[in-house]
Amino acid sequence: MEENERIIEQNEKEEEEEEEVLVQQQQEVWSWGAGTEGQLGTGKLQDEHNPQLLNSLSSFAGPIPFLSCGGAHVIALTPGGRVLTWGRGTSGQLGHGEMVNVLQPKPVESLEGFVITHVSAGWNHSGFVSDKGYLFTCGDGSFGQLGHGDCTSRFSPQKVSYFELRHVTQIACGMRHSVVLVKDHLGQQVHGFGFGKRGQLGISNERLQSVSLPQTSLGLNDVKIVSVYANGDHSAALCAEGQLYTWGRGFGGASDVHIPQCVTTCLSFSTAALGWNHALLLTGDGEAFMLGDYGHGVLSDPQMTISRKKESDKDAVWRIPGLNGLKVRQIAAGAEHSAVVTGKSSSRILFENDGSVLTWGWGEHGQLGLGDTADQTGPHVVSFDKLIAPQHLVGQVYCGSGFTYAIRTPGTNSNV
Amino acid sequence: MSYDDVEIEDMEWNEELQAFTYPCPCGDLFQITREELRLGEEIARCPSCSLYITVIYNTEDFADSNRKNKNIEPPKRQPVAVA
Fold first, then answer.
1. Interface contact flag, A34 B48, Cβ < 8 Å
2. Is the CB of A364 less than 8 angstroms away from the CB of B50?
């Protein structure tokens, strides 16, 4: 009996694995929004107001487990730890050894000998972390954001020698700064380098311009950090207990924060996403919150103003209106737009509305994927061309400054 | 409505565009030329979208900048002139 159960379990496990392989083989990557630098990977230099299916990624081995979208470029990881980049390359941020835009995914050859496990695309620079804990950076270095001790730009990824003897696990690239998470036998630290005027390096109470060598961010010594984030002039770190610390430019008109500060102790978060003036926060049970300007999403229509809810604490987080009780499994933030995937991440059972992408915010370049250039103050469902793959569900969504990517896999909820 | 207020020292001089620039959330750059600054213009526009920023600077710093050398670096990169 027990043996039988074990066999059944084994079979189920194998079936699940097979299913997973199948799912991965049929992965679809879609993009929309600002596209004039080639960041949509469509091979065209134009904005797209509706999701476009990319065929250019299918020629590379296996499904894409992770994407990072920057100012106008994209970095993709392959299952084997290879790196593909495309989009704006005029500062060297694509790492191909030259300063040109690339309209379709192209492997970064100089990283071929390494297994890359984490990547981040900033405004015009890029960071890559290997399984051995090495950090590589390339792109615009004008503010020291590459961490090499100078303000020189690099067109190929170069190892950051400051971390030579340490084990880097994550990098997050913002507009002109970088945040790095180090974890090894010497302990855990968050480091910052690049532009620091708004406090985004978290290294000093004093107002400073920029630093070109990594320095330890303060105030995070007693908490176990699991993730770091950066975008615009913002930085953030999430600790294992679910508290989010932020530093840099203040949200919602609040003053700048120079030393990492806990957002709220009332809620426990599982992930965060930073924009240029807002942040999205997700709790473990799928509740999405927003931090920052209540008027988010009315940029291109100056006449339109949202009646601002009076908050005593300007930095207070508030529940995203318009989700109508829908659970959220993933969040992403562009400079001035937001995207979420519905469904509960911990649940294997999917419901009718799960696996949809909802977007809102600034829409002037079609980055909301709703077929027009209108702004939206609340979440709206993105429609994908049903003729191409009616059963597919969105697994992940990623936002660049003015564009959006969604990865879809075959649906499993059709018979639920 | 201005998207943001940006100090001139935080803008970058772009040789190719012959303008001071600052990142625009659309992915392009807000731009303002030296000549515009000389004339007292304080709005830097993005060529790709409707957004613009307000540039904070001292008009006197640019009042006499109509010099032959148009390639000079932004003020922050220049050595301090001793009177």
1. yes
2. yes
